[in-house]
UniProtKB/TrEMBL annotation:
Gene Ontology CC entries for this record: plasma membrane
GO MF annotation list: ABC-type amino acid transporter activity; ATP binding; ATP hydrolysis activity
Name listed for the protein in its UniProt record: Amino acid ABC transporter ATP-binding protein
Membrane topology type: Peripheral membrane protein
Subcellular location as annotated: Cell membrane
Cross-referenced Pfam families: ABC_tran
Lineage top rank: taxon: Bacteria
Similarity section: Belongs to the ABC transporter superfamily.
Length: 265
């Protein structure tokens, strides 16, 4: 499980060390409706610094909606979200929302790379534009991150030339480039051919062992079991059960968790 290294390592100066129990992400009584469909029901969720949380549950249970709300990609209907102690009020003007949103790096199922940019350009675009760091520094950071995900030799290639596993590793490097407080992964390996899943999970495992704070929506139960510090099971818009991976997989308490695990394992 995640060790005690500081923060996500991107080669940039790190903030002062913070207390172990620091909460990076917290929701209080979060609700989300799409029309009259109640998709998130009173979600109380917290992620501590350096914690790796696996978010599991059947399709349609609200996992994506939850992490999209955390990143203000989706607007919660009621309740509160705090990122690093700052209240994420979706009604804030975008100008005030951006710096809070920037605290979280997002990795999607379908990579969402910019097709007209090379691998390196994809990685350094946001640091250049948003963080306005000098170009030579951005390039050095980009190269360092590409080395970290094992793609140094692909720096000048366009995404169309990459395999799905390589694209997803670029997407991870791109998320890291903004030096986020936490990384949110939404089924990062679900779109990949089976033989490419391992290389992406390996990168994620390395990040976890370095002490990155991560929320991972996944159907990879072995990964959840081996790498996460805590598993959260969602069903029908609710957090039904959460706990230690070993215990939750061996002896789920809730009937719905039991049924889900029986079907998936
Ligand atoms: P999961 O990620 O666990 O599969 P989602 O968060 O994607 O679940 O979806 C939860 C529920 O919300 C589903 O019933 C889904 O159909 C619905 N939903 C998700 N996004 C939208 C949307 N933009 N408009 C309407 N309904 C949505
Ligand atoms: Mg989803």
């Amino acid at each position: 499980n995640a060790s005690s290294h500081p923060h996500i390592s991107t080669g940039l100066p790190q903030p002062p060390d913070l207390v172990e129990s620091e909460i990076i992400i917290q929701t209080k009584g979060l609700n989300k409706y799409f029309g009259d469909k109640h998709v998130l029901k009173d979600i109380n969720f917290a992620v501590r610094k350096q914690e790796v949380v696996a978010l599991i549950g059947p399709s349609g249970s609200g996992k994506s909606t939850l992490i999209r709300c955390l990143n203000a990609l989706e607007q919660a209907s009621s309740g509160e979200i705090y990122i690093q102690g700052q209240k994420l009020d979706p009604y804030l003007p975008v100008k005030q929302l951006i710096p809070i949103r920037r605290e979280l790096g997002m990795v999607f199922q379908n990579f969402n790379l910019f097709p007209h940019m090379t691998v390196l350009q994809n990685v350094i675009e946001a640091p250049l534009l948003v963080r306005k760091i000098p170009r030579d520094q951005a390039v050095a950071l980009g190269e360092k991150l590409l080395a970290k995900v094992g793609l140094s030799e692909k720096r000048d290639v366009y995404p169309s030339r990459l395999s799905g596993g390589q694209k997803q590793r670029v997407a991870i490097a791109r998320a890291l480039a903004m030096q986020p407080r936490a990384l949110l992964f939404d089924e990062p390996t679900s779109a990949l051919d089976p033989e490419l899943v391992g290389e992406v999970l390996k990168v994620m495992k390395d990040l976890a062992y370095e002490g990155s704070t991560m929320v991972v929506v996944t159907h990879e139960m072995q990964f959840a079991r081996d790498v996460s510090d805590r598993v959260v099971f969602m069903s029908d818009g609710m957090i039904v059960e959460e706990g230690d991976p070993e215990e939750l997989f061996k002896q789920p308490k809730n009937k719905r968790t039991q049924l889900f695990l029986e079907r998936i394992l």
